[in-house]
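User: Show me a protein chain along with its predicted structure.
Assistant: Here is one chain, sequence first, then structure tokens.
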Amino acid sequence: MVGLDTWNWPLIAPLPSYGRGRERAGGRYMSFIHGDGLRDVIITVEKLKLKMYYTLRDLVDLSASIVFVGALFFTIDLCENGTIDGQGDVWWDMWRQRTLLFTRPNLVEFVNSSGIIISNVIFRNSPFWNIHPVYSSNVVIRYVTILAPLDSPNTDGIDPDSSSNVCIEDSYISTGDDLVAVKSGWDEYGIAYGRPSSGITIRRITGSSPFSGIAIGSETSGGVKNVLVENINLYNTGIGIHIKTNIGRGGFITNITVTDVYMENVRKGIRIAGDVGDHPDESFNPNALPVVNGITFKSIWGEKVQQPGSIQGLKNSPFTGICLSNINLHGEPGPRSSPWKCSDVSGSSLQVSPWPCSELTSPHQTGSCSDHF
């Protein structure tokens, strides 16, 4: 196997909202397709165009990633099966063996860019996260298929990060980590950079993962607001919907609506947690507590769900304004099923089965749910 030093893979600086590579201190290996400061970019399939089927080994021959800086009106047209294959097994093995010096490359990353359309493309075997729009706006990702083995490490499907006006729709994702994860920076670096993710729509996504179907976090230090998740189908998944943050994150997670979700064979249906994720270094501020408020889950149905949900806030920053409505998360009879778990949380619920914890029970259409009907 060709060694990474022989490949001479290019390095780039860490993102300012992360302060270091996500996996290792220092820089990052550049993404397979990397763009910075782009406008009006399209990656799509269009028949009878020049074939563009790249693998990482192609890039070994080129000794570089595909790099676009400050371009306007750029289009990548793929024909035939329209596949971009990261051949990530080489990187996964090095990660497992702890031989990597820097953070693995994403398959696609656009930084400080706007007017991005990615459609009708198959992404396979990314070394790390598959599609990562960061500090970007007006992004549409639709009709894509994203595939990686379920045991592939950290192969998130789509991670909008400190970005606004993002639409992710009509896609199938099956990977080794979260299918879609909304992010906005990591601890003190994300707080200082201060750029939230907002105006995110995620709809008509189908997929499976040993981790989360749809996630917010855990890197949310710049804040996440105004997110709509709807018409989601999840199978054989660890956690259906996962909102996750931690002490030291700071930031906020607010005005999140999740509706019309079907899940089957899921370990936990809904989880909102304040104890998830690690820290970039020891300099995080333990008094930087996240604010979680205004989270609505409605019209959610699950079969073979081991635990319907857990909502566990922070003692000094309780999660408030949680609404559960028209939710049925059915487990299988027997010892594998367990009830809701809640702490440091307040809200209300309507038509929820099994009945949630006392902090979220309300016999009338009042409190947190009244604003949504």
